[in-house]
Amino acid sequence: MTDCNKQSHLPTQGGHMVEKERELELQEKLAEQRLVLKGEHEEALRVLRAAHEQEKEALIQSSQEAKAALQETIDGLTSQLQAFQAKMKRAEESILSRNYKKHIQDYGSPSPFWVQELESLHFVIEMKNERIHELDKRLIHMETVKEKNLMLEEKITTLQQENEDLHIRGRNQVVMSRQLSEDLLLTREALEKESQLRRQLQQEKEELLYRVLGADASPTFPLASVTPPKVSFLAT
């Protein structure tokens, strides 16, 4: 029985080994597939990035070309407009001055074509005249505004000059006021000194007069009258 049991366990162990080997093989295959997929993904990203950069450069170039073409179109339209305006001016001058007069001289009355042309030209002339009048008004308005601005600038300059003059006058008046105050103070000091000197002189004068008058009014002692002796001369 023991040998039978051993023999029965051997196939089981062999089956486990086979399963493990299969699992290992499967894991290796999965790892290889993962690496392949990762490489393919990175390659696809690289291709997409390259395509994106290429598309971006193409769009930039196309945008620049479109801008250049648009600018060229604008320049062309501007040139055409200028040429058309020049032609219209020449047409106005030539038709009104020569062709129309020649047609009148040759055919008499103007044909419907010329009437229509004249009406068109008249409309264009009226539109241009209105535009010219509008520009003239704007120009006159701008000139008026410019003159007003110049006048305001002149007034501002005048006011600034007057303000500076007032400041100078104010400073001069302050200096003069200080000088007058100093002169007045000196005058007061001189007057006080003069008054003090006068009082001193008056006092000295009074003292001197008092002394003089006091000496004259001092008491005098009377002297005794001395009678000279009589001398008799006898005849001897």
TrEMBL record:
Residues 49-94, 142-211 form a coiled coil. GO terms for molecular function: microtubule binding. It comes from the Eukaryota. The keyword Lipoprotein applies. Residues 1-11 have a biased composition (Polar residues). InterPro entries: MTUS1/CCDC69. Its main location: cytoplasm. It is found in: Cytoplasm, Cytoskeleton, Spindle; Midbody. Transmembrane segments: none annotated. Keywords: Coiled coil, Cytoplasm, Cytoskeleton, Lipoprotein, Myristate. Residues 1-20 are annotated as: Disordered. GO terms for cellular component: cytoplasm; midbody; nucleus; spindle. Belongs to the CCDC69 family. This is Coiled-coil domain-containing protein 69 isoform X2. It comes from Trichechus manatus latirostris (Florida manatee). The gene is CCDC69.
